[in-house]
Amino acid sequence: MAKLRSFVVLSALVAGAVGLSGVAPAQAPQWVTVKGKVVLPKDKIPAPAAGNEVIPPGGDKAVCEAKGPLPKNVLIVNPKNDGVKNVIVWLRPDTAKRGDKLDPAQIKPELAKVASKNHVVDQPCCQFEPRVLAVRVGDTLEVKNSATINHNIKYDGPNAFNVNLPAGMSHKMAQPFAENNLIEPFSCSVHPWMAGKIRVYDHPYFTLTDADGNFEIKDAPAGKFRVVYWHELGFHKGKDGILGFPETLTGPVTTLKPLEIELPK
Predict the structure, then answer these.
(1) How far apart are CA 257 and CA 35, in angstroms?
(2) How many domains, in total, are found in the chain?
(3) Which residues are CB-contacts of 192 (< 8 A; sequence separation ≥ 6)?
(4) What's the pLDDT at 50?
(5) CA 66 remoteness from chain centre
(6) 129: exposed, middle or buried (C-beta count within 10 Å: 0-12, 13-18, 19+)?
């Protein structure tokens, strides 16, 4: 009799947990911190013509070279650890169609809608700092000129503008960034070597490698995804890398193997 009563109580508990629908409640999503590093060994760094050459600054030499020789800064590799700076890394679905998006249910609720961020770009020594930006839909852009010479800012995104920037002045874009799968360039017409790139995302799972080539994406959903690596010289492995590379993310931390980037020739 005691065994029968125990069975009845256990059955009731299970029924209560499952609910009248007969389906067990879904487990809450698991969130993962994704870490990794992008490297380029010294013997595989392209020739200077690929973007590492020193620029002759012309008539603005005193300002442009105030901090030393002026490298083009397209490809920045840390000589101490081979880390590659300014590689944008992001997550996309594990699918073969480029336009596919992450399911909104895969985005952590606290990150679904966040306050917009104003991204500031300066140009103190005839270079944009930073020159590569990864932004989210709704963010804004402000360009400053802290130099003592005249600059210009030409932005070729959907809300394009081209304005003169005298010393000490700034300009803020009138409209926030909108969803766009294209690369949005900006440049300075006064100093033609000055250039930068922007990519816009409709989700929070993107980041930029630091001076050591390291990156981190927080609160990503667990599961199978593809990780995309993009440098302003192109995708890792060129067109073969446009859809990214499959990875299984498991919490609390997934540390990816260091990626030796292969840039298009």
Answers:
(1) 9
(2) 1
(3) none
(4) 56
(5) 30
(6) middle
